[in-house]
Structures are given as structure tokens and as C-alpha cells.
Amino acid sequence: MAENVDAITSLESVPDALRHKLTQALCDSRKMNHHFLNLLASKSPTEIRVLQLDQCGRCLPDYVLYATLNNLPNKLSALTNISIKGACRLSDAGLKALVTSASALRSINLGCCSLLTSDAIIILADKLGSVLKELYIDECFGIDAKSIFPALLNLQHLEVLSMSRSESVNNSFITQFVAVQGHKMKELVLADCTRLTDRAIKVIAESCPGLCAIDLTNVCKLTDASLGHLANGCETIRTMKFSCNTFSDEAVAAYLEARGGTLTELSLNHVDKVAHHTALSLAKHAMKLQSLDLSWCREMMDEALGLIVDSCLSLKMVKLFGCTQITNVFTHGHSNEYAKIVGLQESQILKNIVVPDLLPLRYSSV
Fold first, then answer.
1. Alpha carbon distance 26, 18 (integer Å)
2. Is 283 helix (H, G, I), strand (E, B) or coil?
3. What is d(CA 33, CA 335) in angstroms, rounded to the nearest whole number?
4. Which among 106, 247, 363, 364 is most buried, taking Cβ atoms within 10 Å?
5. What are the residue ranges in the chain where pLDDT is below 70?
6. Which residue pairs from 7-15 have beta carbons closer than 8 angstroms and sit at least 24 positions apart in sequence?
7. pLDDT in tens, 283-342
8. What residues does 215 pair with on adjacent strands?
């Protein structure tokens, strides 16, 4: 069906589960187009609550969106989650038309929507200020953090803010933002925001007591002091991503000793110094850990990895890409049959890759 999408004339009798698989297949193969989008919108369903069109790219310019919205009168009134990551032809005007039709939106992912400007966030605040809880604007290079600051403060119930690769995010922006919104924040994604320093992390730790997840991947100016701030201030973090930073083995171990007991997901990808101390702390304190990424951590040897995997019995996934030092002593020697090891030469990588579905809100009920 995906290979012959232009020949499909109706989806009226196609079950929802099959529509979902077909839509995902088209998006993954970059064959999603306005013809199929209009088929999805016409006649049924009578109500849409979740809409995921990631990588829809060229098929969603404003004129197609307007036509699709015309085919969906009143069907978007219950829409709570939408992801149109990669909609590179969507403009501020198109986004305004969309959120005007979907006034109940709680979560919106606009990552890599390259035509959007700061005005887009002002529009969101105006239309959805009293309901929006999750905002993802990763790699939206036309959006300036300073320009959208007043609009972000008007998002009264914001819990998740994702702004990875935003060159305009700096210490001043973070300090001012969390001073007002920090007590509500559950997740902050600041990967590749390379202007941030320990000062910003200290303010986050002091102002976000309910934070459950933080991504600090490649925030390259951070030092071990940041881990101390997070250990002292954020007691509820379940997902921690430290990847591509220069933290010491001792500092990571100390953080895990203090807060490892709450973690379910940890990424230390390319934190090159982690080794024996980190392994001991993980084995002793990370009993709830389900996902661990130690890719390119080449100081982590067979015995240390074996101790981690055999001690952390909740582990379901361990990623070890680039760990050429690991031998069969580990792969055939550990006793945790439930932990999938991904990234080593003999592991079946593609078999373990799961494309996530767009789910209801991460931290709140709809």
C-alpha cells in the first residue's frame, strides 16, 4: 500500500491500526504527500486526539494544510497532541491556522520546522496559553530565545520545554525563564546549547524542584560543578543525559551515589572519562535503571560492565556503540538475560530499534 499510495482512493474501510502503520511507513520512506493526507482527513475519523506526521517535510506547505483543515471541520477540537517535526514548508501563518482549529492542544512538536520565526511562539502563547503543556522547538533556527521569552511566560501550564541546538539560549535566558516557570517544569532539553555554563545549571537545580528529565548533551562548557548542583537540587530526576561532556569519573560516580536511586534512563555516551568509579556507583545505587548508554566510553572494561549489568536487574537496554575494548568476557559472561546489548559488533542493531509512537502527555493526564 505504501508503494502505491497515489492509487488509493479511499481509507473509509481501513482499520485505524492499519492507517497508523501506513502513515508511519510513508513518513519513514519520505513518501507522505498531500493526496494521502487528504485521504486521512476525509469522511473519517470523526474525531482526532493524536496526530503524528514527523518528517512530513515537503507534503505540508501552508496551502495543503489549509485544504486539509477544510476537510476536518470540528474534527480537531479534541486534538491534544501533534507532532509535525520536520515540516520544513510550514510558515507562521500555517501554524496559526492549525492551532486556531485545534484549541485543545496540550503538546506540540515543531522540531526542525525551519520556516518558523519567533512570531510562531507568540501565536502559540496567544492561542494556547492556558492549555499548552509541552513545547518542542528543537533546531528551529529562526526562533530567538530572547524574542520569545515573554511568550513562554504566558504559557501558564508549561511542563516540558525542548530547545536543543538553539544558539540563542544562554545563561541569562535560563536564569530568567526558570525564575518564573521553574517550579512547574518537568523536563528541559538543552542539548547542544553550547553557550550555557555551570551558572545556568545551578539556577536550574535551585529553581526546578520537580524536574524529572534533563538533557545536557554536548553542553561543552560544563564542569564537574554542574553535577554537584544537580545532585544537591533536583531530587526527582528519572532521565539524565550527560552525553559528550568532559565530566570526570569521580564526579559522575558521586552524582550517582546521591541520585542514582531515582534514575530509569541514563546516557553517558562519549563521556570519555567514566570508568571503574562510575561502574561501582551504578552497581550499588541504580536499581531502577532501565536504559543505559555507555557508547564510546572506552575506559569501561569487561569486568566493570559485567558488574553493572549483573547488579542493575531492571536494565532492559545497554548501548555500547564504539566500545571496541569490550570482549566476549562480558558478552558471554554476564548473567542478566533481560538486558539487550546493542552496538557491539555481533549485536543485532536494527532488531532493537523501536520507533516511538506519539503518546499522551509525558507527565500529566489529558
1. 12
2. helix
3. 48
4. 247
5. 43-46, 346-359, 366
6. 8/36, 8/39, 9/39, 10/39, 10/42, 10/43, 11/39, 11/40, 11/44, 12/43, 12/44
7. 999 999 999 999 999 999 999 999 999 999 999 999 999 999 999 999 999 999 999 999
8. 189, 241
Whole-number pLDDT of residue 33: 80
- Number of Cβ within 10 Å of residue 301's Cβ equals 17
Q: Is 134 helix (H, G, I), strand (E, B) or coil?
A: strand
pLDDT at 320: 96
CB-based burial label for 365 (10 Å; 0-12, 13-18, 19+):
exposed
Angle, helices 92-101 vs 118-128, to 10°: value is 10
Q: How far apart are CA 63 and CA 22, in angstroms?
A: 23
Tens of pLDDT, residue by residue over 125-161, are: 999 999 999 999 999 999 999 999 999 999 999 999 9
Q: What is the 3-state secondary structure (H, E, C) of 304-327?
A: HHHHHHHHCCCCCEEECCCCCCCC
- What pLDDT, on a 0 to 100 scale, did the predictor assign at position 346? 58
- Tell me which residue of 125, 113, 51 sits closest to 360, measured CA to CA: 51
Segments of the chain assigned E as strands: 50-52, 81-83, 107-109, 134-136, 160-162, 187-189, 213-215, 239-241, 265-267, 291-293, 317-319, 340-342
Q: What is the pTM of this model?
A: 0.90
Burial of 293 per CB tally in 10 Å (0-12, 13-18, 19+)? buried
Is omega for the bond preceding 45 within 30 degrees of 0, making it cis?
A: yes
Residue 292 phi/psi, 5° resolution? -135, 125
Phi, psi angles (nearest 5°) of residue 165: 60, 30
Residue for grid cell 571496541? 324
The three-state secondary structure class of 160 is strand
